[in-house]
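User: Predict structure, ligand cobalamin.
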Amino acid sequence: MMDQAIIDDAGQSLVKGSKDGAIALAREILDKGIDPVTMMDEAFIPGINQVGELFGRGQLFLPELIMAADAMKAVTDVVNETISSQAVQKEAKGKILIATVKGDVHDIGKCIVTSLFQANGFTVHDMGRDIDTEKILEEAVRLDVDIIGTSALLTTTMPKQKDLEELLKRKGLKDRFKTMVGGAPVTPRWATRIGADAYAEDAQDGVCKAEELLGLS
Ligand code: B12
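Assistant: Predicted complex:
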């Protein structure tokens, strides 16, 4: 468990959009030996969610949201460096293609997921953000991946995850790939409704679900 004062400071650094402050705090927390995923789950993710709530209520505006996102992205980079330096070289467990769907530029969560998958021995092809459904499928076929994971952070872009399921069915490829969906507005119910093979709440859950999908656990 992390100290409440540090959790509050992490939240404040994001609300203030202080990139340097957030980076310094992240390094301080990691130096104490706290696991990077725990740090994100307990301090910075609640912090960025708080920023999102303030923005949603009109108490914080787009320029501040952008600054907070910039600070969060910098923390994510520190975390990803730490995770990859701690990663034990394991035998490749499977290939995963990951992308944020078309019309959506949110990629902080996706980058954390990518990094944790890699640290757990998966080969990950991260296509980035705002990616066309057809392109995702083309790349999945070209790279012959096992799982396609998509991220959607907007209620207006979630339907792209459904489009992917429909495209897979239309092309007769539904049985060839397993699909996994994630992102803050995405729910297990949504995953079931669109026919995705798995829903993951966070990066750690994503790793567990991927292992289940590939029969590794
Ligand atoms: C940061 C942020 C931004 C940044 C994004 C920067 C970036 N590079 O990502 C910027 C400033 C660019 C931005 C822009 C916008 N945003 Co914004 N943003 C956010 C905010 C505050 C945080 C998102 C985030 O990074 N969370 C932290 C990460 C770690 O969490 P996560 O993404 O959910 O990921 C975790 C899990 O979901 C899961 N996961 C995620 N994806 C996947 C995928 C797989 C395969 C798996 C297994 C797991 C998984 O694992 C991750 C790690 O635990 C949210 C608020 C919120 N609570 O979500 C609003 C929010 C999503 N944004 C919102 C809005 C409205 C916008 C804008 C439309 C604003 C505008 N007027 O322009 C634009 C849209 C731009 C676009 N076309 O995409 C709304 C969406 C409302 C809605 N109903 O859809 C929110 C909810 C804010 C709000 N309360 O109003 N935003």
